[in-house]
Amino acid sequence: MNKKSVISLFSLLTIYCFVISSTASAHHFIWLVHDPAKQLSTWVNDESRASWWFINGVSTTYTADSSIQSEVNTAVSNWNAKIPQVRISGSGSDLIFNYSDSVCSSSAVACHSVDAIYTSGLLGGNHTIKSKITITSSSPNKTRSAAHEIGHYLGLHEQYVDVGTVTCNNSIESVMDASGCDTHLNRPSDTDKFRVDNYLGNGWATNVNIYNIGGIRTVGFLDYSYGEAYYEVKIKKNVGGVWTTVQTVTTTNNTALVGGLSWRSDIGPGVPIAQLQSGSYRAEVRPYFSSYGRFGLLASKDFTV
Asked: Which pTM was predicted?
């Protein structure tokens, strides 16, 4: 992926803060994205975009203020060591780490903001291509603060408990917990790795169905993946008891949004099927994750022509 090919940039002011007191909703999801009505342009609370570079298996470049360079380098190294697919490396401006007390809210020790996005009508949403992470002088552990905000860059939500007062989430160990919680963590935990691997590196389609639109058969399904580069759709025919592939297509239509336990994107009906002879057929659908170099779970639907 050539970064020069990204041509659609929009400035954004949305900031996600690493707090030491209550500032947010009491209900925190695993992922920042929460847009079931597909209204990303309104940019309401608790929304984010997956990193365009991560989705395409491309390194995210970064730079840091000299006063926090060592701590940032350690946080970056810790993420890369725990989850190599994160690929934050090299000098550049995809991810900028600043040291300032004038950006984040007064209760925050650090914050993350999305500065620019790659947008596509076909994708049905946007992806992050430039972000800033700001560490404040009140941060008691700047390495952990940087590691926490990198989690936001990837799309992870806060994991502290907020019921009027922020308290630690004792049910899990996560670098996404509040400042002062799990203080030994300067890196993603096993829980954080599990979530990234299984939501940015795995997923599936559900409700696979065959539609007839204007005499053209199409495959439709619900997208339950977050970090997929595309979906592969195979049409197979049962020939003498053997399922034989007769058509393979890929689609990125409406794949820009999360599709975890609470959200989904509706793909189709919109993947055309070539004209078929009479017989028994099967549509097989699976997402592909470029950063991991693997396909997700397979879903299928049998049909007859």
From this structure: 0.80
Strand partners, 211: 218
Q: Which two tokens stand for residue 260?
A: 């975890």
Which is it for strands 125-135 and 95-99: parallel, antiparallel or unpaired?
parallel
Residues 62 and 193 placed together within one structural domain of the fold: yes
| Same domain, yes or no: 165 and 254 | no
Grouping H, G, I as helix, E, B as strand and the rest as coil, residue 71 is helix
Residue 280, strand partner residues: 304
Domain that holds residue 226: 204-304
Structure tokens at 287: 């997402």
Within 10 A of 304 (CB to CB), how many other CB atoms are there?
A: 9
By the 8 A CB rule, do 110 and 17 touch?
yes
Cross-strand bridge partners of residue 16? 112
Sheet holding 15-19, edge to edge: 15-19, 108-120, 125-135, 95-99, 60-64, 88-91
Beta strand 108-120 with 125-135 is: antiparallel
Give CA–CA dist 33/56, Å, rounded. Answer: 19
- Tell whether 191 and 211 lie within a shared domain: no
250-282 confidence digits (pLDDT tens)? 988 777 654 433 344 555 556 788 888 999 999
d(CA 181, CA 92): 31
- Asked if 225 and 263 touch (Cβ cutoff 8 Å), the reply is no
Q: Last residue of a domain, which of 170, 199, 228? A: 199
Spacing of C-alpha 140 from chain mean position: 28
State whether 49 and 142 are in the same domain. yes
pLDDT in tens, 186-240: 999 999 998 889 878 888 888 899 988 888 888 988 887 878 889 999 999 999 9
